[in-house]
Specification:
The protein is an all-alpha fold and 156 residues long. It is 53% helix and 0% strand. The longest helix has 17 residues. It is globular.
């Protein structure tokens, strides 16, 4: 699968989330990681560029579900642009897609369209020899995203 196809799916599926301002920015998550209060959203300081994602991807761990969904398609876009390179940004993204889910949930907060977009993205990473993250993407798929996943309980 062309890696750009899952990005188009993600952009469509997460359009409402991207349009809303995140309650906690990646910069804010980075501040929380340093035991500081998260700064408020600032349009110029929180412009989502590759440099911003590279600087603040560690803050992904500290985002609430809505803020996490706000950044997902941008993180997927970064991974597509750097498909053949190992990057800390993609590693942080993949870690954020792993169980266990939180309380309140992030993974279970996705709509079916959003789940399909994330699964397509993970499959593109997992099943392309040019992917720098194919082994980790396979693991993430097996843990949560495929039918019969190891750690996901599905309704009967």
């Amino acid at each position: 699968m062309n890696p750009a196809a899952p990005l188009a799916m993600a952009n469509a599926a997460f359009a409402k989330d991207v349009a809303s301002q995140p309650r906690i920015t990646l910069r804010g998550g980075d501040a929380l990681d340093g035991y500081e209060d998260p700064p408020p959203f600032d349009q110029s300081l929180d412009e989502v560029t590759d440099t911003y994602l590279e600087r603040y991807s560690g803050g992904l761990t500290f985002l609430d579900a809505a803020s996490w969904r706000h950044y997902l398609p941008r993180l997927i876009g970064y991974a597509v642009r750097h498909f053949g390179q190992f990057t800390d940004v993609c590693d942080a993204l993949l870690n954020s897609l792993r169980p266990p889910d939180r309380e309140p949930p992030r993974l279970a907060s996705l709509t079916p369209d959003q789940e399909r977009a994330v699964t397509a993205f993970l499959e593109s990473l997992a099943f392309s020899e040019s992917s720098a993250h194919h082994a980790f993407a396979c693991q993430v798929l097996e843990e949560w995203w495929i039918p019969g996943a190891l750690y996901r309980k599905r309704a009967e």
